[in-house]
Design goal:
single chain, about 250 residues, D-Maltodextrin-Binding Protein, domain 2, 2 domains, nine-stranded mixed beta sheet, two-stranded parallel ribbon, 6 helices, about 25% helix, about 25% strand, elongated
Length: about 250
């Protein structure tokens, strides 16, 4: 059985409900029907979400799942504009919107055998604005008074990974979702750290439909037992006008 289609250019990919599955698949007879427009950041899509989404579409064959992969702020803007029902993305610690599924830290990563020159400006591999990791990376270097230059900009994580593997520079990434083939730089390499980050679920409000609520429940259940972290933090902290409900 092939994987559900995923694109990483901010466009939506749709998996039609009613797909047939092999007899070996033991799926419950879920009566829920409808559509859920779901947004997720690319680091989650490549490293953590596929197993969750596969189990969800097998268990809910009559739900039309539409996946939108983009930067966290872009997804939040789409949610606020009514274009998405549910978003799983990053946020800065201290913000009050959404339900925190786990907390992590943004670290520097590079290809094998690649290390920043202690004298030359740091060569950076970055997402374009409004990337959160880009903002955190540049702020950390500025606060640490480390000169830097942008060696590569890519709108996709695959592009960033390719540039890092080729040795063009270093990139900022969540520590628990580091892609294969890349390594976290050691503290001895003396770069100021970008800091902590939260991974959160945000919904479209009290009117969120049953398909979105079911997907939210599936993600939260999986995070409670199989998050990237040994200790999982699951806490809900609604803020004024937050706009999520589970």
């Amino acid at each position: 059985m092939s994987r559900p289609p995923i694109r990483s250019d901010g466009a939506a990919c749709r998996r039609r409900g009613g797909r047939r599955y092999p007899p070996a698949v033991d799926r419950p007879d879920s009566p829920i029907r409808g559509r859920v427009r779901f947004g997720a950041s690319e680091d989650l899509v490549l490293a953590w979400l596929p197993e969750v989404l596969r189990a969800f579409i097998v268990g809910h064959p009559h739900i039309d799942l539409e996946l939108n992969v983009a930067l966290s702020q872009t997804l939040i803007d789409k949610l606020d504009a009514g274009e998405l029902d549910l978003v799983f993305c990053k946020r800065y610690p201290g913000e009050e919107r959404g339900q925190v599924l786990w907390s992590d830290r943004i670290v520097w990563v590079s290809g094998t055998g690649v290390a920043p020159d202690p004298i030359e400006p740091v060569s950076l591999i970055l997402y374009p604005p409004p990337s959160m990791t880009r903002t955190m990376a540049l702020a950390a270097l500025q606060d640490g008074q480390r000169p830097w230059r942008i060696a590569c900009t890519s709108s996709t994580l695959l592009g960033l990974m390719a540039a890092a593997a080729a040795g063009l520079g270093i990139m900022a990434h969540s520590s628990q979702l580091i892609p294969p083939g890349l390594r976290e730089l050691a503290p001895s390499e003396a770069l100021p750290q970008p800091g902590p980050v939260d991974f959160v679920l945000l919904g479209s409000g009290a009117g969120m439909g049953a398909p979105a609520r079911e997907l939210s429940r599936a993600i939260r259940d999986r995070a409670s037992t199989r998050s990237p972290l040994a200790r999982v933090q699951t806490r809900a902290v609604p803020g004024p006008g937050d706009g999520w409900a589970f």
